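Write out the 3D structure for:
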Amino acid sequence: MKCINKFWLAVLPAIMMTVACTNIGYDKTKSGLEYKIFPTGKGAQLKQGDVVKFDIRITYKDSLLGETYGSVPGYIIVDSAGRPHDFSEILKDMKVGDSAITIQYYDTLIKSSPQGGPSFMKKGDKLKTNLKILAVFTKQDSAMADYQAEMERFKTRQMDEVAAYIKKNNIKAERLRNAFVEVQDKGTGVPADSGKIVSVKYTGYNFAGKFFDSNVDSTKQIQKHSMEPFTFVVKQQGAVM
């Protein structure tokens, strides 16, 4: 499968699983991916080489693993075959406006995918993927411009939402470029100036107060990851240690 750029969401390869045929009314690809397309019959047919803009939602049991709805859509180039055992296999059969569901079993993934399977899954587990085709571009430049516009809209919307939350809850936070920061305990150590390497311990909660991630407390993590400090170079984009 060709990839436009590393930051595009042509993605989630580690959680795109395979399927055994257990769902009535579902079709099945040659690799065993089970799927059902809900056609609109109105949009352009997707073809090899097109750049597809889509929304996606991936669930495991009762947990949401990830989605683009309400954030930045994904972009992917249509290949003639697609990656085995994920939604890219069925793109050539879809049109703009179509939706689809795929259901994938962990058992098949560990036998056929070089990525193996997610650590939180076990034999017999499956993932459900909901997909919606939003648009198609015949040129990568046009797709890139659309992606950048989506990113700017998302950033603006996010900052507006955070500013409203801060005002409502009377939080004394300062805006620093694309983030709001409230210093609760001011340190006396060396300043984290540009170019210096820093390590961070964090625990994250959403606006409703629900825990979503941490490298301090691993007990509530859905996808386990390192508990080591997050280390990066200050003001150097992408310079993660």
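The domain at 13-140 is CATH 3.10.50.40 (Chitinase A; domain 3).
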